[in-house]
Amino acid sequence: MKKLFFTIIFILGALLSKSQDTITVLQYNLLNYGNNTSYCDQNNNNIDTKNENIRILLHYYTPDIISVNEMVNDSYKAIYLLNNALNTDGRTFYKNVAMTNLSGSDIVNMLYYDKRKFTLEYQEAVATSLRDINIYHFYYNSPDLQNGDTVRLVCISAHLKAGSYSSDAATRADMTSTLMNYVKNHNIDGNVIMMGDFNLYSSSEEAYQNIVNYSVEAYRLYDPVNMSGDWSNNSYYRMYHSQSTHYTSGCYAGGGLDDRFDFILISQEIRDDIYKIKYIPDSYKVIGQDGQHFNAALTDAPENSMYPQELVQALYNISDHLPVTLKLRIDQTPVLGVLEQETNEKIFVSTLVKNQISVELPGTYNYTLSDITGKLLKQGKITRKDIISVSDLKAGIYFLNLKANNKAVKTFKIVKY
To answer: Is there a contact between 352 and 13 (Cβ–Cβ < 8 Å)?
Structure first.
């Protein structure tokens, strides 16, 4: 037991010395959020219903960066989503970027981020023949900032032209050509991710090749899962199909899950861990995709075996797309000490535990316990002298977050041996 104890201490010391953080990025087409069309309006695509289901998604996944497509061209609606879905249920840390619409589209891109972890330095918009492509420049709010040291991340959000006609493919190609030339002319390289609903049917499409085989190699982006091919209606790629969650058409596109339309691409610098940000292998997921619903609705039989049914139903209700997510490791001192509410009252938490976490608190607090990937494992209330059982968890590193009056108080790193 003593040997195991010192092994855990050594591992914890190694983790702390590496000063790493893990962030989660999520891309989601919200299907005409707040936008009324002849076939899609507040009767069959109500934003309050969407918000209720987005809150369910955020119960299971709490991304640090959320890029969305098909937001109505109305900044009020972007704030409405922020206040009624994202910053609810105790969350107060999301912030939105400024909306742009140089291209004059009815629907636009929007991006939300955890302001505790990131600061938006500036943003750019690239006008295309259809919709803006947005470029956001962030830096990570590491404590190392006081020494002038942190990492930067560029997020590009795009929604390319839909449709299977050659003219649609030509528009997609024109949009990505415009983007990549802008990227080169403005020397946008380093830690870059590009995400969005690309509406691509194959990796051979010119629009895709413009990105992954751009003439200047320094600006190329890469598919984290390296799954090139003819994605459409091909069961081989079913784990990466993100559209459509519905079989019947209407406001939602029909036909079942058979297209890989939604992507997150990464730069070589992130792929090869050059500038302190690295893609975590096998973290790229299409949330809700279990591989059993090729050309079928997400809620059709057989029952989804990989995700909670509450989440599956919420995804079905929100959109005809599924969200795509990945994780990035940041080699910088983590933002664990950033608090929304400071407290001078004494709090004791046992951080090296076997079967239970012991706490001594000045009052009643809400808590969440998550693993190192950010997955929520336990939540509830604790008060005064209390315990949280972890006998059902395996040995490893966990994070205990305490809140009072829906405000973050402190996060503790827990080591279970």
So the answer is: no
Token couple for 362: 């000045």
Q: What's the token pair of residue 410?
A: 């402190």
Q: Taking the CA of residue 43 as centre, how many other CA atoms within 13 Å lie in the half-sphere pointing to its CB?
A: 5
Tokens of 166: 């050659």
Question: Considering the entire predicted model, what is its pTM?
Answer: 0.79
User: For residue 339, which phi and psi values (nearest 5 degrees)?
Assistant: -115, 145
| CATH number of this structure's domain 20-331, picked from the four choices 3.60.10.10, 3.40.640.10, 1.10.3720.10, 3.40.430.10 | 3.60.10.10
Mark out the alpha helices in 131-215 (DSSP H runs): 166-185, 206-212
| High-pLDDT (> 90) share of the chain, % | 75
In this structure, what is the dihedral angle of CA atoms 355, 360, 363, 365, given to the nearest 10 degrees?
A: -30
Which pLDDT tens digit goes with each residue over 52-81? 999 999 999 999 999 999 999 999 999 999
The CATH T-level fold of domain 339-416 is Immunoglobulin-like (2.60.40)
Residues 356-372 have pLDDT tens digits of: 998 888 888 999 999 87
Residues paired with 88 in a beta bridge: none
Query: Where, residue-wise, is CATH 3.60.10.10 in the chain?
Result: 20-331
Q: Please list the residue range(s) of the chain that carry CATH number 2.60.40.10.
A: 339-416
Token pair in block for residue 99 = 């909306």
